[in-house]
């Protein structure tokens, strides 16, 4: 099926078009530059930017795919979780297009879409797989028997999300926003063993994460240096902080695989773009005999193709479409894959 997917849960206006598991277009307009001076996404600014970018981004995706709206078999849209006002723009647009074309609409879960997107790159997902979902707003470990019908939460962060920790640490190092890409870059010149930062909940027997203690430890360490009048070795701090985050993530993800007898691990979400996370996960998966799947970085951060991919999977699986009264649900639970 030809499916058009719309994503507006945060600061990316994404419109993707897929045919089954083939990616035809992935158009994105980001308002990230408008948020940079605030050090984080400003919801009202994001909503307004979605409103302005929506139609041009739909047009660009159609042109890139070489199709017209009439060719589309079904629509999919992120119904949650995300910023309420931002979600509403995408959901309203998707409803209008579905209504005008008389085509089915699937309101889907953004987090499940971060998992489903990998099919566009590596083909059908093994059933079951374990998914580590790490982004600006979420850090979860999922058991995924079927991404279109059955996703179960094993654990999640009890405080900050992994991406949020990257963003906050980048802010305290004056590296700008968003923090993930710049810390990733600066860490390459640093020593990841330079500073022993804490690994929260490392062996606590749960699949939960905690990153706020780590963030505080980095802040205290930097403050102590500044108080002593010594320069802050930014690359070493970035590398050591990053290592603490990815060490815990990979450790818990592989334990989830082992405990559940699952041989396939998928990593998704914006933080999955991190080069050290990708390298360490590959190293430890090879040692554990677990197959690793990580989409290319552009598919890890928010985009419309992931939403289209999940919609196409639902069409193929015979899932019933949503009712056109579907809501935008800012706190949609991960187990609710389709509203
Ligand atoms: P959510 O899916 O929770 O709604 P989100 O909307 O914030 O998340 P994503 O694009 O999935 O959006 O993730 C963005 C996050 O990913 C930001 O916190 C950013 O710092 C982080 N990030 C992006 N690239 C990297 C990288 N190379 N290393 C580490 N973190 C990264
Ligand atoms: Mg973003
Ligand atoms: Fe996301």
From TrEMBL:
Record bears the keyword 4Fe-4S: no
Entry binding sites for substrate: 133-137, 167, 180, 184, 274
Subcellular location field: Cytoplasm
Residues engaged in binding Fe cation: 110, 114, 302
Cofactor names: Fe(2+)
CC per GO annotation: cytoplasm
The EC number(s) this enzyme carries: 2.3.1.234
Protein name listed in UniProt: tRNA N6-adenosine threonylcarbamoyltransferase
NCBIfam families: gcp_kae1 (TIGR00329), T6A_TsaD_YgjD (TIGR03723)
Keyword field: Acyltransferase, Cytoplasm, Iron, Metal-binding, Transferase, tRNA processing
Record field: catalytic activity: L-threonylcarbamoyladenylate + adenosine(37) in tRNA = N(6)-L-threonylcarbamoyladenosine(37) in tRNA + AMP + H(+)
Gene Ontology MF: a single term: iron ion binding
Function description: Required for the formation of a threonylcarbamoyl group on adenosine at position 37 (t(6)A37) in tRNAs that read codons beginning with adenine. Is involved in the transfer of the threonylcarbamoyl moiety of threonylcarbamoyl-AMP (TC-AMP) to the N6 group of A37, together with TsaE and TsaB. TsaD likely plays a direct catalytic role in this reaction.
Gene of this entry: tsaD
GO aspect biological process, one term: tRNA threonylcarbamoyladenosine modification
Domain Gcp-like residue range list: 23-308
Pfam families tied to this protein: TsaD
Lineage: Bacteria, Bacillati, Actinomycetota, Actinomycetes, Streptosporangiales
Main location: cytoplasm
Co-factor binding details: Binds 1 Fe(2+) ion per subunit.
Similarity field: Belongs to the KAE1 / TsaD family.
């Amino acid at each position: 099926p030809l499916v058009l997917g719309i994503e507006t849960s945060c600061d990316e206006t994404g419109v993707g078009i897929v045919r089954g598991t083939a990616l035809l277009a992935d158009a994105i307009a980001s308002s990230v530059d408008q948020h940079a001076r605030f050090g984080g996404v400003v919801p009202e600014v994001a909503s307004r930017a979605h409103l302005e970018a929506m139609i041009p981004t739909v047009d660009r995706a159609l042109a890139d795919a070489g199709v017209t709206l009439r060719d589309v078999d079904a629509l999919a849209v992120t119904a949650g979780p995300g910023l309420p006002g931002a979600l509403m723009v995408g959901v309203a647009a998707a409803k209008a297009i579905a209504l005008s074309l008389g085509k089915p609409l699937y309101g889907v879960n953004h987090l499940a879409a971060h998992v489903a997107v990998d099919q566009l790159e590596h083909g059908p997902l093994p059933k079951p797989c374990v998914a580590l979902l790490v982004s600006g707003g979420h850090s979860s470990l999922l058991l995924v028997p079927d991404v279109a019908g059955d996703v179960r939460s094993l654990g999640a962060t009890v405080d900050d999300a992994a991406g949020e920790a990257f963003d906050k640490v980048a802010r305290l190092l004056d590296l700008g926003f968003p923090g993930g890409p710049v810390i990733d870059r600066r860490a390459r010149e640093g020593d990841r063993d330079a500073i022993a930062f804490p690994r929260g909940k490392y062996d606590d027997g749960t699949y939960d994460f905690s990153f706020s203690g780590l963030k505080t430890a980095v802040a205290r360490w930097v403050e102590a240096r500044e108080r002593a009048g010594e320069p802050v070795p930014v690359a070493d701090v970035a590398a050591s902080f990053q290592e603490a985050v990815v060490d815990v993530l990979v450790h818990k993800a592989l334990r989830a695989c082992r405990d559940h007898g699952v041989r396939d691990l998928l990593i998704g979400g914006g933080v999955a773009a991190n080069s050290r996370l990708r390298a360490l996960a590959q190293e430890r998966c090879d040692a554990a005999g677990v197959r690793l799947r990580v989409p290319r970085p552009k598919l890890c951060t928010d985009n419309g193709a992931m939403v289209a991919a999940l919609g196409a999977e639902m069409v193929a699986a015979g899932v019933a479409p949503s009712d056109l009264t579907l809501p935008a649900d800012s706190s949609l639970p991960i187990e609710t894959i389709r509203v």
